[in-house]
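FORM 7B: Structural annotation worksheet

SECTION A. Query
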Amino acid sequence: MPLPRGSAGRRLAEERLAERRRSPRRPAETPLVWIALATGAGALTAVALPHLGFGPPVLGATGAMLLMAWAHAWWRHADTRACGLLLASVASLAGAWAGAAWRWFPVDDVGRYAPRDAEPVCFEARVHRVPTVYPAEERSPFQAIPPRDRTVLDVEVVALRDGVRWRPTSGRCEVTIAGRLEALTPGERLRVFGQLRRPSPAMNPGQRDAAAMDRAERKLARVWTESPACVASLGNTSESPAAWLASTRVWSLDRIDAHLPPVVSPLARAMLLGEGSRLPEPVVKAFRKTGTLHVLVVSGLHVGLVAAVLPGLAALGLLPRRLAWCGALVLVIAYVALVGARPSAVRAGVVAAAACLAALSGWRALSLNSLAGAGVAVFATQPGAWAAAGTQLSFLAAATLLGVSSWIAHRNAKVTPPLERLVESTRTPIERLVRRGLAWAGWVLAATLAVQLVTGPLVASEFHRVSPAAAPLALVVSPLVALSVGSGLLLLAAESVGLSWIAEAAGWLCGVAVQSMGDSVVATSRFAGAGFWTAGPTGWWSAAWIASCGIGALLANYGVNARPFLLRSGVALAAAAFAPTLWSTWADADKLRCHFLAVGHGSATLIETPDGECVLIDAGALGSPDRVADTVARTLWAHGVTRIDAILLTHADIDHYNAIPGLIERFPVEAIWTTHRMFPRVIDDTDHSGPAELARLLKQANLPTRLLRRGDRLRVGAARLEVLHPDELGVLGSDNANSLVLGVEYAGRRLLLPGDLESPGIEALLAQEPYDCDLILAPHHGSHRSNPPGFAAWCRPERVVISSGQPRGEARSAYARAGAEVISTHETGEVSVSLSERGLEVNSFR
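SECTION B. Predicted structure
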């Protein structure tokens, strides 16, 4: 019935709104939520059932039969049974779709030709996306390979050269070019000369799985080229919408660069268009440490501002209402396409589009329903995107914000008493502004803390970060982000219609806002408590936590008291968090464990004693120091290590120590052990070599350094460590010749860890009394310069571990002829050895 006019009508409207907010929703009001839950269940089924012999065909056929059964039940008005059959059908079809996307690839896919180790290749392909250029990182003394600019291309392969003929080929792959190559557009045909290989799988527990991430994007191969000259353009075959979008994106980025100072332009590019390739690494680390990295991703705020422009003009009477909402829908779709249709942007776009359609049709826009629909849309278009932690965090954060908003609305769902309205009318504008500002600050703090509570375990598990500064910093960052995005979008809109004076003003405002935001984040990151590293929970625990929060939220949404469930699940999760550690401690109470990490061409060995002490022997590789430190740290966390009692450095080769700076940031370290020749005897200000910089870093961190020599014996728990080489003076030779050789003895078993020992140091070692052992780490990554036959005869190992980034056939043959079993980390991943009175047990990761 129509509302009466005047104050009575307003009070009645308030009462109806309050009643609607207080009343719980019914499951029938949120059908897409149940569809999304069924879709998720089906996707999880696709992961589990292939191990039982069920694949996409079985799931697809089951889904089709369930769909026919649903149609029959719906025709007979058996509503309850029809709903169950429909959800089961959705789950089966979603499982078939997820399984097919993960398992099924064409027979001529380029990934089927990709070997494990890179081989030369020539192929033709079409550009799939605009190339991304990554400027060279700042030179570091801990880098073995000088950094260079990189261009990353996503291409569709069409032909592969096979001798003198071209073989038709399909499939996507990622091409990395050493150098800059920007003038390429989607659809352009290329001829590429490079090195083809499969993406690297995880080789250590806890390590990121690059092969799985690429497979989720339907890519089974990677190509590396040494120069832009290795990529030749064969012409643009067609003008496509993708090419038009690419040119529009490039134009937009150029406009941002033209109007903003160079120091803030990279931040603005990331915030407005999701182009973060030019962000300096220190800035990215500051945002990551403070928990504000999400503001550099196009998400709900950006899309919401785009959607609000035309309806805002309509509210001022400048546009017809229906035209404004239609235009907003078009703008949202165009903006999501412009930023690359990433999952976070698609999620925000679907929610905004649902709001536009609801406004046009007069329906009630249910945000939870819209968010569930966005999840289904992302799964339908990019089924592998849900495997990425970023996608999961995006939807979790959005759902949490919706929950907080709903809780606040429910709490405030009451009719304002006349006396309170009278008191409010007597307040001055300044008082009202202050009260609203305080209310907004409270909402921001509550929302940020709620998001951290829900997503914290997943962030800690995937990124090993906890950021206490995120909540207070949100009070500063949130308005600056809104101002930056709003003024930046106004800049692009003004440039597109030729209003240069508005573009200049908007560019100045955007630059000030972005600069202020960046300075705030960087300044906050300098505080010690702004953020810290953590081992984080296991993946299954994070999944159980999120599931518990989701079930509790659904129960509350439908008017069921969720507190008993949340209390019981919280107690169960708290108990489960300690169960694996207690079991591992009990099961390995008498074992010394030694883990040889797979770090490519490098070395990292972890020794864990039964009483919980940990010694890390070397930590480095030829790759990026940050990447190596991340790999080693994740592996240590996966083994339950949270502190390191000592780091032993065998010698001054960069591929044995360049991860140490990153590990000191992540772990408490008690001491450093090394040889007398590891660091320069005198370190002056002009010496910026790796060992000198590492010595300065250790001094700054107040880490005690103990210098070892031949004959030193150390006790680490129940294990005995003995230094076999070198003495205090060393030998006349390279750093490799003076590598520290360490013998480890426990429960009557021996390990030998010789670093990169080679001539003349190896002759000095072989001149000593033979050291009979059960297992050795091959000297110098299995190089022939380490005299494998002579070394094997001297120590007579039963097993040999080779830590290398490539096959070592000669060393393998030499040790095999000596009767030893040879295991290579290049082939099997991390090698774990357990020593006890019962013997020696060897396991590999893959």
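SECTION C. Observations
The mean pLDDT is 86. Residues 429-463 form the longest helix (35 residues).

SECTION D. Sign-off
Analyst initials: ____
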